[in-house]
Amino acid sequence: MTPAEPAWVARFRAPRVSLPEWAEDAPDRCVFAGNATGTFELYTWDRTTGESRQATSRPEGTTDGLLSPDGAWLWWFDDNAGDELGVWRKQPFEGGEAVEAAPGVPRGYDAGCAVGRALAVVAVSTDDGTTVHVVRPEGTSLLYASEHDADVAALSRDDRLVLLEHSEHGDSRHRALRVLTVDGEVVADLWDGAGLGLHGVDFTPDGRTVLALHERGGRPEPLLWDLGTGETARLAVALEGDLAADLTVDGQELVVVAEARGRASLHRVALDGTVLADLVAGEGTVTAATPRPDGTVEYSWSSAATPAVIRSTAGSVVLDPPGAPAPPSVPVSDVVVDGPGGPVHALVARPDGAGPFPTVFLVHGGPTWHDSDAFQPDRAAWVDLGCAVVQVNYRGSTGYGAAWRDAIEGRPGLTELEDLAAVRAWAVESGLTSACVLAGGSWGGYLTLLGLGTQPELWSIGVAAVPVADYVAAYEDEMEPLRAFDRSLFGGSPEELPELYARCSPLTYVDQVRAPVLVLAGANDPRCPIRQIDNWLAAADAHGTPVEVYRYDAGHGSLVVEERIRQMRAELAFVARHLGLEPPA
Predict the structure, then answer these.
(1) Which of 82, 267, 355, 544 is the most exposed, fewest CB within 10 Å of its CB?
(2) Does residue 340 share a domain with residue 303?
């Protein structure tokens, strides 16, 4: 008899699927991402026959794709081994050879793609900035070019208008909007001013109005922008938290996701802002939602204890992947701690027993992201090891208003660590914690290395995955959209603000690190490039810092399930060894 695999491994291997996206004129034709082969790939699904088919097959996996409105073509983004630099390809829905979808569009980082009925609009970013191209059967033409960061948000249903987000005013964290015809005529511009961002969502079915999100009231909220008059109507939606919205298919209502205190709920809202129905509310998190032509809404939901499920507001499970579901985990509880910038919210998961426990402070990336009451195999794996897990939604996180999100500007890294220190102090004083592990990936990896150097007395062990480690070198090597993000975050480039970048760089404090550190790094990572990690590792070695390194041949993470298990096993084994815990099976 083959012994059962450990629960933490089973959670990673369990079949998972994304929320299916459907073709606008053929809603029974869908595309979703799934891991049935052990690597996340794109699948087409015909609801009329029930047949699903694996559409892509690449060693590194594929998750970025969309269908043409008629459902005849699947478009997907093809990069090189996870480096995110690539081109769009397309292939028939029923299967067949993939061909270049946008001839004439240069290889670049994806900055948005909208496929229409007679043309497509494709944007890419390179070191020279952003270009937007109109792809027609007869050829490709340049629609827009800027040295600044920009993205395609939407294409009107008549293929006439393009909605762009741009940062020509110099702040990529707070965008402006522009509507152009596909022939390059500017129809309308909208900018709310310094520090107030706009996010483009979609055109109404008649193309006369744009649904967007604004921040004039201190949080993301929906507004309607009349392209004929230029007037905007703010919708006063009586829901707590940061709001995201989409139009129903007929354009007569909104489907709104409200993110607050680590949860996300789902609602139907009228175009005057009146909440018509609470579709999904309470514990757990709605991670994605899409309205259907029949008036239902399909959504992905999970909680810390319960694996994700794809459901419909009609009451049915929409898509149930084959195979055994992931083993459940433990719920999270809420803690609010007084911090130097205001109350700090954290989620806490506890193993069985009275404690105190070795505690992993698992730090989210972004930084414009947040930890939530959603199912996470990595959080569950730490609990299985016997650790408590604390996840802090520090200043910089979303879900708590624009001021909280933007509070790190001008002092990134050091600000977030103040909040982490405040929650750590609560964890120790409350009796939860016996030893403190600082761990995270991407921006969370950055905060881990920075925290180990600037707060060495607080942390016993560090685990930093794909971190920013040498901020100046990272800026030099990273993809251009992230350079623009950094300039907005810091207030300028390293050449303009060398002292600030040095003050916020983990490399500056590497000689202060005392805790043993595990660093995980992707060879092809365009977001936290390998050279700047190697710079930190070399400096750590010179100072005799106890560091171990796990390198893998992919980008900013991996879509290969077994690779992700190997990484998690390395993290668990490293922490178990240094804390004297039973190593993972």
Answers:
(1) 544
(2) no
What residues contact 259, with CB distance under 8 A and at least 6 apart?
Answer: 241, 242, 243, 244, 370, 372, 398, 399
Which of 267, 222, 556, 220 minimizes the C-alpha distance to 398? Answer: 220
pLDDT of 365-385, one tens digit each? 999 999 999 999 999 999 999
* Pair (205, 282) in one structural domain: no
Residues 60 and 18 placed together within one structural domain of the fold: yes
Distance CA(509)–CA(289), nearest Å, equals 43
Q: Is the pTM of this model over 0.70?
A: yes
* Residue 327 located in a structural domain: no
Cβ 210 vs Cβ 177: under 8 Å: yes
Domain carrying residue 539: 333-579
Q: What is the 3-state secondary structure (H, E, C) of 71-138?
A: CCEEEEEECCCCCCEEEEEEEECCCCCCEECCCCCCCEEEEEEEECCCCEEEEEEECCEEEEEEEECC
Average pLDDT, integer, range 26-36: 98
User: How far is C-alpha 150 from the geometric centre of its chain's CA atoms?
Assistant: 18
- 125 strand-pairing partners: 109, 130
Nearest 10 degrees: Cα torsion 494, 498, 501, 507? 110
Structure-token pair, residue 215 = 């921040």
Instruction: Calculate mean pLDDT across residues 51-71.
Output: 97
- Asked if 62 and 41 touch (Cβ cutoff 8 Å), the reply is yes
Each residue of 419-435: pLDDT tens digit? Answer: 999 999 999 999 999 99
Q: Calculate ∠ Cα 453-455-458, nearest 5°.
A: 125
Over residues 303-331, mean pLDDT: 95
Check whether residue 246 and residue 392 sit in a common domain.
Answer: no
Contact predicate 123/151, CB 8 Å: yes
What per-residue confidence (pLDDT) applies to 3?
Answer: 60
Distance (Å, rounded) from C-alpha 69 to C-alpha 24?
5
By the 8 A CB rule, do 186 and 180 touch?
yes
Residue 1: predicted pLDDT = 33
Angle 414-429/443-454 helices, nearest 10 degrees? 70
- What whole-number distance in Å separates Cα of residue 51 and Cα of residue 71? 15
Instruction: Give the distance, in angstroms, between the CA of residue 489 and the centroid of all CA atoms in the same chain.
Output: 18
Residue 63 CB coordination number (10 Å): 16
